[in-house]
Amino acid sequence: MKKTLLITLSLLLMLAVVLIAKSNQTQEQTLVKIERKSINPTQQGKKKTLEERARYDEARNLYEYYRQVNPITGIISKADKNLELMNSKRSLLKKDIKSAKIPETTYSSRGPSNLGGRTRAVVVDRSDATGNTLIAGGVSGGVFRTTNGGTSWTKVSANDEIHNVTTIVQDPRSGFESTWYYGTGEGLGNSASKSGAFYFGQGIWQSTNGGLTWAQMPSTSSGSQEVFDNVFDIIFNLAVHPTTGELFAAVVGRIMRFDGFTWTTERDGSPSSTSDATDIAITSSGRVYAAFSGTHDASIEGVWTSSTGNSTTGIWSRINASDFTPTGRVVLALAPSNQDKLYTLFVNGTISDCDTTPAVEADLWMWDQSTTTYTNFSSKLPDEIGCSDGNDPFGVQGGYDLVVSVKPDDEDFVLIGGTNAYKIEDIVVDATFTRIGGYASAAGYASYSNHHADIHALVFSPFSSNVLFSGTDGGVHATADITAATVAWSSLNNNYQTYQFYHVSIDPDSGSDFVIGGAQDNGTTVGGTSIGASSTTSHIPLLSGDGVSVAIPNYAGCGISFFGGSQNGTLYRYCQNTSGYTEITPRMSTMPDVLYPSQFVTYYHVDPENTNAIYYASEGTLLRSTDGANVTQDTWTSLSDTNTAFGHADYFQAFSTTRGAYDAATSYLLMGGDEGHIYRLNDPQNAVNISTAIDITPPTATIGFPSIVTGLAIHPTNNDIVLATYSNYGTESIFLTTNATNATPTWTLVERNLSAHSIRSAAITEVAGQTLYFVGTARGLYSTSDPTTTDWAREAPTEIGYALVSSLSYRPSDNHLLVGTHGNGMFETVITDNPLNVKHVNNISNHMSLYPNPVENEINLKFAGNYGKVSNYMITNISGQSVLNGADLLSNKIDVTNLQTGIYFIKVKIGDKFGTKKFIKI
User: Fold this and answer.
1) Taking Cα atoms as reference points, which of 614, 646, 359 lies closest to residue 505?
2) Are 811 and 507 contacting, i.e. CB atoms less than 8 angstroms apart?
3) How far is the CA of 299 from the CAs of 166, 589, 787, in angstroms?
4) 510 φ/ψ angles, rounded to the nearest 5 degrees
5) 3 state SS for 909-920
6) According to the model, what pLDDT value does residue 595 have?
7) Which of 237, 698, 837, 906 sits CB 3.0–4.6 Å from 747 for a disulfide?
8) Are 256 and 231 in contact (CB under 8 A)?
9) Per-residue pLDDT tens for 343-395?
10) Which InterPro entries match (predicted)?
């Protein structure tokens, strides 16, 4: 009772903090001074150097940081994030709503199922002698498992959390192989850095059934995923002791040991930043090696060893050579065939620059425990003929990508990974490493055949010493023969859905399955069988760099056409049948050699109904073209900037245009900025200057930087109805107006149960006179039929879950809604007028049971009540894709023998009743 009361009081206190902050902001606001910072890393076409990688990381980081930070307090608080998560878990699901006529929504994956995102961990299951069972982890995508060698994957981590997976390990002991662990939290390369936390880890998760299901280890739980408050927020590596079964964790700045009850700090590097990297390696006899990066104190940086890894039974000794001088991350690899040999690859502090000092950015040493001596092999690291920054000589981007591995049957056959992957077949005899993956050559940045740059994992199969798997920024790949003169790779990114989309867009033409997205560090991709993709979930990669805004204009005579670009403003128009790619990045007419400045995630908007109209955000300046099919870099029209027009520099973050045929009297453009203002520009195709725009900002919205407008949704048939969203914590975040065309629209705050959420996107749909409002949040997708009277219900709990919903694109002609997530790819739904299927009275899920569960061959359905026979059923995987269906089920038994192991959902219909249950296939 006391515990319940204490929890209740704590919740009330957190709520009071939020309400007080909001109360203060609605009156005279006193905002913490947060400077807007514009970062302009190198454009696409040149690989990132160490400095540029840092600038990229900071730019991505700031993009997300500005969308979260509470402008009243100047921080992203643990209370804000915990309240958001708690409210998410308390929100009703769509299927549980007992009243209100709400259309049914069923979500299907739109991929990319054939392209992978950033992957730091790949492990081959030792208990499957075929070598076909693997478990891999996508950073922000989750944990995936395959039992057929990567022909298909099943997501096995829960969708109700965001898993920033960095390391996976299997218990190597005989009889314990079903126990697995994965660690979370990326300290290098993610936006988890000093200027704003986003997606630190959630500790360590354990599976005791071969990776089918996972549970968080409570002893590693942190307070918030967006606040660094625990060393388990960032985990570089995990290892299980082969004789004691103890779990070792290389966390930020420390080596930790878990004996099943208690965590003990074995080596403490006194972490001072998220880049204080560590590593761990354990021999089959139980000797433990630990590494500390050169960012630590000089007294602990380098490599240590202990005969047991336990300070009470095996003293730790430092084994650095006298000239062993890491300045950054250090990674380790034991030679499986001779575990006295330990290879150590580390950042040496060199910043290679082809214009000044091209040089290898790492050193490689080998420790021999039998002789207690080091051999320096750094001179053999690759420096090929020619030079290209970050590509050659051997580049590691400050340790962001750094890995070393040894062939299981040959102690001298060594592989390394940085920007590229390399091998040396005899490190004693051979002169240098040769390139086997990443970029094709030192001459430029074309991709190595069927492989991706930025290498994080190089893992041999325990059943075939020639088979190697790689984890990269492009997912999972494999080669069947690492000894081949030219190593051939196969992509294993088959339903390994881990893409981080910033923006997505759907073809405005009814019936088309053409979609497009701009993704973090994976450029622009398109999907759809109508444009040549092999399936509705497959994508075709088209542009590199960091993806930005996207649009499909369907210009006459083009065949396939789209707009895409990359970071800091670069914009291309593609017309398949005529010009192909044309760069249309706006150039200043007064200075023809100067491009208009833009933000890192470049934002522009193509009117989906009048596609020749395109609006481009050059920070706070609005650029326009009414001839999108022919616009060039020099034919944009500047409509001035917010500082000149309104006296404050609002950088545009969101645009929206009215639907239907363009009408100079009624059509308008909405513009939302990063200082909280919303402007309405009437007749935008003919406007001369944005000074004629009307400021229609909700009176209680937070004004001042940063207050990010993230969504502006105009009703598809009623221009007076607008839904506006803001993303910052501590501010009022969802507003609705029904008189948007008035000189001074009246706004209603409609956050309701989402008052604690960071709101990222918005859409309004209409089917048969029924309006439905959608918002994408940092914790999933929500909808309501009337936000003024009805709470928001969480959509797609088994498909989208709590993923960050970054973008929504609606096509009114056939009611398709495309959902873009930052970590789990795209999903699509058709909004239908079918309210009976979602009324609580017809949901018989609670009267339905499955057995056996987990199931191996045949699953039985049982119903508590006389409902009759199942008229049809559908089994979907955790990504929402249908894998098995049927009709007229007489025996209430279903053969699931051919399903691969994983988590599934069975949906049944009996007359007008329906039910859904989860089961596990083993």
Assistant:
1) 614
2) yes
3) 27, 58, 59
4) -55, 140
5) EECCEEEEEEEE
6) 92
7) 698
8) yes
9) 999 999 998 888 888 999 999 999 999 999 999 999 999 999 989 988 999 99
10) Secre_tail, Sialidase_sf, WD40/YVTN_repeat-like_dom_sf
User: Which DSSP string do the residues of 316-329 spell out, in sequence order?
Assistant: -EE---TT---SS-
Cβ contact 452:442 at 8 Å: no
**Cβ-proximal residues to 812 (8 Å cutoff; 6+ apart), any chain:** 659, 716, 717, 765, 766
Locus of tokens 């918005």? 762
Continuous segment of H or E residues that includes residue 22: helix 2-26
E strand or H helix at 51: helix 50-68
> Residues 6 or more apart from 7 whose CB is under 8 A from it?
none
Instruction: Please list, in sequence order, all residues whose beta carbon lies within 8 angstroms of the beta carbon of residue 613, skipping any fewer than 6 positions away.
Output: 606, 607, 624, 625, 626, 628, 657, 662, 684, 685
Q: How many helices (H) and strands (E) does the chain have?
A: 4, 62
Give the tens place of pLDDT for each residue, 439-480.
Answer: 999 988 888 988 999 999 999 999 999 999 999 999 999 999
Position 189 scores a pLDDT of: 67
Least confident window among 267-276, 498-507, 618-627: 267-276
Cβ atoms 749, 725 nearer than 8 A: no
Cβ atoms of 6 and 14 closer than 8 Å = no
Closest to 810 (Cα-Cα) out of 829, 835, 834: 829
Is 68 within 8 Å of 727 (Cβ atoms)?
yes
**pLDDT greater than 90 at residue 9:** no
pLDDT in tens, 817-849: 999 998 889 999 998 764 433 334 567 777 888
The residues with which 770 forms a beta bridge, in sequence order, are 767
The first and second tokens of residue 478, run together, are: 């494999």
Residues 6+ apart with CB under 8 A from 379: none
Pairing relationship of beta strands 302-306 and 501-506 according to DSSP bridges: unpaired
The number of CA neighbours under 13 Å toward the Cβ of 664 is: 3
